Amino acid sequence: MTKPVARVPQRRNARSNRARILATARRELGKNPDITLEELARASGVVRRTLFGHFPGRTALLEALAEEAAETLRVAAASGVKPTEPAERALAYFSLSMWPVGDRYRMLLALARDDLGTDRVAEVLAPARNAVTAILERGQQGGAFHAHLPPAVLSAGLEAMTVALLEQVNTGALEDDGTRVTVATLVAAGVPEERARVVVDDIATMVVAAAAADD
């Protein structure tokens, strides 16, 4: 008599396939927003039927990515907010905390125009954008940042710069662990370069220590 196939390993394998597909989609869609599901299946190392078993169409896959990104960015944004720190240190801490999930930003912005829509992307990115805007507003009021642009406009400019620099890291044109981009962010916000480097070096040590404590 044939023994029934165990369901637990099947479920574990299905979860593994789904996670691999999503990870591959994040990476590949950031490079090429027009990649097909068939190409994503090959890049994920699964057959087309497996991919469609998890995501019956492009819309379902993109919405799953959006939900995943929303939660990841929400957690990163919440942990990166330091309201009691001076504004320049708070901005450095936030930038360094968000750096490991920068690929989500890149992928979402690449899909904003034609797939997810700008409103959906704005909804996903709202916690991070609101946090930066609040830090910038506080810094402008205290004189730490220049004030010739409204906080929300300055935030949008810093976001665009960060995404562009992240792309340069991904192409190999720039090597960075987030500290160089964070220095650039502070300088663009109005902090003198020498001061920005001192702040970022200090905050980077704090972020590393916090990560080690969590492990």
Characterization of this structure:
With 215 residues, the protein is an all-alpha fold. Helix content is 79%, strand content 0%. The chain contains ten helices and no strands. Residues 4-9 have low confidence and may be disordered.
Strand percentage lies at: under 5%
Number of helical regions: 10
The whole-angstrom Rg is 20 Å
Order of helices and strands: HHHHHHHHHH
Assign a percent range to the helix content: over 70%
How confident is the prediction overall: mean pLDDT? 85
The assigned structural class equals mainly alpha
End-to-end C-alpha gap: 48 Å
Shape: elongated
**Mind describing the biggest β-sheet?**
none
What's the layout of helices and strands?
Elements: H1 7-31, H2 37-44, H3 48-54, H4 58-80, H5 87-98, H6 102-116, H7 118-142, H8 151-171, H9 179-189, H10 193-214
